[in-house]
Write a structure and sequence with these properties.
Length: 193
């Protein structure tokens, strides 16, 4: 009875793992395709200096349609933003501009608009935009990597399920072989008498 329970358990476990593996592979492939089609729909292309900035990982004028290209394009955006802000990052810049064009976080020192409001530092605001876009691009890379992980996990589940079925089938064959060996001597004894 215990042997039969393990045999049925092996068949069921094998079938369940194969189904889960197929589902994981399907979800992984669909996720990867979704990332790539969403990126391609944005029609983002790299600039003329992309190859130089990314050490050849992203070609000039390339369509950004994969997670890896999206990650490299985020690096290009960061490079250009650092270039525009003279190497300063968001937290290193003042919120406002003074009448001389210097940045400051002191509202009293800030230049004023005609309606009396302090003049915002547009380059600091550029960092907000760059960070939002770079985060979205990096999320595309992460999503593509997670979909790849799902595909690999699905393959592992599929192979494990097949392994369980093979072991269960082998157990059933050994059981049948043992029964055949027991019956054969009895038939031979009956035939001799």
């Amino acid at each position: 009875m215990t042997r039969k329970l393990f045999e049925y358990g092996g068949w069921i476990a094998g079938a369940v793992l194969i189904v889960f593996g197929a589902i994981a592979i399907t979800m992984g492939v669909n996720g990867r395709n979704e990332v790539r089609s969403s990126l391609a729909a944005q029609q983002i292309t790299s600039g003329d200096d992309a190859a130089e900035i990314t050490n050849g990982k992203l070609q000039n004028g390339a369509l950004i349609n994969t997670g890896a290209k999206a990650r490299e394009f985020a690096k290009v955006m960061e490079f250009h933003t650092l270039e525009a802000t003279e190497g300063k990052r968001y937290a290193e810049m003042g919120r406002f501009l003074t009448p001389t064009g210097a940045d400051t976080s002191d509202e009293a020192l800030a230049a004023k608009t005609p309606d009396g409001r302090p003049v915002e530092n547009g380059l600091r605001n550029m960092w907000v935009t760059e960070t939002a876009l770079a985060t979205a691009l990096n999320m595309s890379f992460m999503a593509e990597q997670l979909s790849l992980f799902g595909i690999v996990t699905g393959i592992a589940l599929l192979l494990t399920g097949i392994g369980f079925l093979v072991l269960s089938f082998g157990g059933a064959l050994r059981k049948q072989d043992a029964i055949t060996r027991q019956v054969a001597p009895q038939k031979a004894a009956v035939a001799i008498s």
